[in-house]
Amino acid sequence: MTIAPGGSDSGGSGSGGSGSDSATPPNPYGAYPAAEGLGGVAAPLLAAAAATLLGLVLQIEASLRWPGLALLLLAVATVLMLRVVQCNARARGYAVTPGEALAWYPDADDPERRRVVFAELERHRAAWRFWIGSARRHYNLGVLFLLLGTMVTMVPADSAALTPARWLAIGVIGLGCAAEVLAVLLDRRRPAWWSRWWAVEPGLRWYARLPARAVRWAAPPDPPVPPARPAGSAGGPLVP
Q: Which residue(s) pair with 238 in the sheet?
């Protein structure tokens, strides 16, 4: 699972600076609550799940083939998820909207006050993106180690207990690990063509499109933004 920090990359009108009279909105607009869902809800639950599996492995380690490796992987997953919670807590201090910031000042309508507040909000947004980026990276790695630990835990000490159904379950989690590795790698560097995921490759048969579609399923990019049209023209979205 990946989540990109908010913020417009193109600047444009309304971007911060010493002479700006408005603040740059997060991109997407719901970036703040989305990040809170990752660091405030999902990460604590996954940390609890990893800690529960740690206790389970300690109880049944005699029946596992690699109990030490399972303990190591699950311990790393627990620490990474707790780190997500910490990074998210730091980021929450910077997730402030213009209305919330201006509410602290009785002279909020003063142009100079608004200029200073909006400049501060731009610095807050940069700090928020830093901490959320760190939380996202720790989260992706935590999910990967949790999947690896779960997969190792499913391997029994007795080879006779490796039934086809168990092999299938291990393989499914292995595919999840591969998808998470791909998501982590693409989160660090996404090629330019990644944003054209919605386009259907022309001239290719369905089986030739399967690898690309599998990659896009594992690490989906953001959907395209419809191009703006001149105000007053027919059809399509209006220019803001």
A: 229
List CB contacts of 113: < 8 A, sequence separation 6 or more. Answer: 102, 105, 107
* Closest-CA residue to 39 (of 133, 122, 110, 159): 133
Cα separation, 186 vs 184, whole angstroms: 6
Answer whether 0.85 is exceeded by the pTM.
no
Average pLDDT for consecutive 10-residue bins of the chain (240 residues)? 43 41 74 85 93 91 89 94 92 86 87 87 87 89 93 88 88 89 72 51 62 62 49 46
How far apart CA 71 and CA 58 sit, in angstroms, is 8
Question: To which residue do tokens 């909105």 refer?
Answer: 25
Biggest alpha carbon–alpha carbon distance for the chain: 77
- The H-assigned helical ranges of 38-163 are 43-60, 67-92, 98-102, 111-153
Neighbour count for residue 6 (Cβ, 10 Å): 21
